Amino acid sequence: MSSRTGGRTRHAVVGTGARAEMFVRALVRDHADTAELVAFADVNQARMDAHNRWLGELGHPPVPTYRADEFAAMLVKERVDTVLVTTVDATHDEYIVAALHAGCDVVSEKPMTVDAPRCRRILDAVAETGRHVTVAFNYRYNPLHEQLRRLLADGAVGEIGSVHFEWLLDVRHGADYFRRWHRDKANSGGLMVHKASHHFDLVNWWLDATPVEVYAAGRLFFYGDAGRRHGYARDYERAHDAPAAAADPFALRMAEHPRLRELYLDAEAEDGYHRDQNVFAPGVTIEDDMAVLARYSTGATMTYHLTAYAPWEGYRVMVNGSRGRLELEVVESEFVSPQAAGALKGAALHGTEAAAEGGSATLTVRPYWQPPRRIEVEGYTRQGHGGADARMTRVLFGDATDPLRRAATARDGALALLTGLAANRSFETGQAVRVADLLSLP
After folding, report:
1. Domain 9-135: which CATH class?
2. Where are the domains of the chain?
3. What is the pTM of this model?
4. Helix H segments across 246-329?
5. For residues 408 and 85, what is the distance between their CA atoms, to the nearest angstrom?
6. What is the radius of gyration, based on Cα positions, of the chain?
7. Mutual angle of helices 196-207 and 143-153, in 10-degree steps
8. What secondary structure letter does DSSP report for 70?
9. How far apart, in Å, are the Cα atoms of 340 and each of 249, 251, 330, 370?
């Protein structure tokens, strides 16, 4: 169906919210010699128009726009080779499966989808069509995480017995999941799927293993109605034009962010979506404090904790092995001021480059009988998820060289998803959940 222009791969983007900008910028600015942006599709014309205006800022002409129900026609008319799926998580499978059957390859934002039946649909479509799905797990491309994989593969700590992984989202970044569509588990799968799939994928990749059994406990402790118990709640539904939001450090003021205003505030008339909901308002169905114990095919275990209301942002990974211990600590922000709590992390949009925040990163190997050894990592930066975004788009849109097998397949996406789904099931039942009981993979 598709054809290439001057050897360049023809890409269309479906879902023109904030996350799409990182891919669009990479296509038209960094990889125009190998890739071409040919169309947008979305349920909201105003958002597509905003992206086309921003293309002009990059010196690129506007591209054709299509309503979501014209997606199949767009693939044919624009002779699309690869579809970039950056829609609401629960709709990923709809566009992935349609694109595969139309003869296209797909790059999907994480998570690949939000439940086991949708995941099965995608895997079946891959098998039926022979086309490829790549999941944009950009954390694989972070130089720190690449080095950690090399160290483990080279036996730096011997046989791996266990992993402890703690992720902290501060009250600026964490709160943002409770303002928007992610707050409804039907849309996002909750943070065990939408956010932690990144982390579960890293552990699968680092250990070269698959999850077998998961036990977990999670609750909504801080946001939602719990905010009244803690004294943080203010009485408003959404921040825009709400007097009660004026002094709320958790309120997002979209009118102060030009790009957010264009993408969401100015686009509300078309679909009624409010990007700035009160994080303490009723209707939150996802958890903000989650603990997981997982067992892997190698026999290794992982303890994992995600906190979405921390005073600082960062993460810690500890790997215990038969020859020592590896420790990674990353501090992305040391604290959040009240004035910054209602802003977005780094920049208004993922794709907009912003000044690096204060922080630090240390990677240490602690062998038995020897002093600890600090590992210096080349290429790590304080921008773009540690430099991962640029490295990932280089592989997706240009350089096919990938000796560390960072490009995640549909199967990789399924395995990361299944850890989160098993955790969600364990939240509900209070029992350990066998991953194979949710979805069997070859």
Report:
1. alpha beta
2. 9-135, 139-223+284-383+408-437
3. 0.94
4. 258-263, 268-271
5. 15
6. 21
7. 30
8. G
9. 8, 10, 20, 43
Among candidates 136, 141, 138, 149, which has minimal Cα distance to 328? 149
Q: Are 152 and 161 in contact (CB under 8 A)?
A: no
Please report the DSSP string for 149-184 in residue order. HHHHHTTTT-SEEEEEEEEEEETTHHHHTTTSGGGS
Please tell me whether residue 56 adopts helix, strand or coil conformation.
helix
Task: Dihedral sign for Cα 204, 207, 209, 212, please.
Answer: negative
Amino acid identity, residue 79?
A: R
Q: Residue 348 has which token pair?
A: 């208004």
- Whose tokens are 């099931």? That residue is 425
End-to-end CA gap in the chain = 30
Q: What is the pLDDT along the chain (442 residues), one digit of tens a residue?
A: 545 555 899 999 999 999 999 999 999 999 999 999 999 999 999 999 999 999 999 999 999 999 999 999 999 999 999 999 999 999 999 999 999 999 999 999 999 999 999 999 999 999 999 999 999 999 999 999 999 999 999 999 999 999 999 999 999 999 999 999 999 999 999 999 999 999 999 999 999 999 999 999 999 999 999 888 999 999 999 999 999 999 899 999 999 999 999 999 999 999 999 999 999 999 999 999 999 999 999 999 999 999 999 999 999 999 999 999 999 999 998 988 876 656 665 433 333 333 335 578 999 999 999 999 999 998 777 677 778 899 999 999 987 778 889 999 999 999 999 999 999 999 999 999 999 999 999 8
- Pairing label, strands 360-367, 324-333: antiparallel
Q: Which two tokens stand for residue 181?
A: 């569509």
Query: What is the CATH number assigned to the segment(s) 139-223+284-383+408-437?
Result: 3.30.360.10
Pairing of strands 9-14, 82-85: parallel
157 and 319 in contact (C-beta within 8 Å)? yes
Tokens of 260: 């957010």
Distances from the Cα of 211 to the Cα of 11, 326, 408, angstroms: 33, 21, 16
Structure tokens at 137: 């797990």
Those residues with Cβ within 8 angstroms of residue 201's Cβ, 6 or more apart along the chain or in another chain:
110, 135, 137, 139, 140, 408, 412, 413, 415, 416
